[in-house]
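Q: I have 89 residues here and want to know how they pack in 3D. Can you give me a structure?
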Amino acid sequence: NPNSMYLTDCTESEISHIISELQNGKASDFPISVIKKASHILGPVLSIQYNNLMSTGCFPAILKIGKISPIYKKDNEEHLQNYRPISTL
């Protein structure tokens, strides 16, 4: 089908590489340094889960929920229009 898209399975090494490039101190529910240290454990598990999700086309509802935080932009901190929403998935 010309309107279809095909994705190859992701590998443990791809996941480990992506984890290694995460910036310490960025928004996360877990410290990035801990995720990096556990990448040898997380890599295989995440690659299996990702490949399963992509092959079945099912995405769990719990992973569709984002945490929205207001981030201050400029000017008066008491005015809501001076904040922007940031969503962390």
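Q: Anything worth noting?
A: Residues 39-56 form the longest helix (18 residues). The chain has a mean pLDDT of 87.
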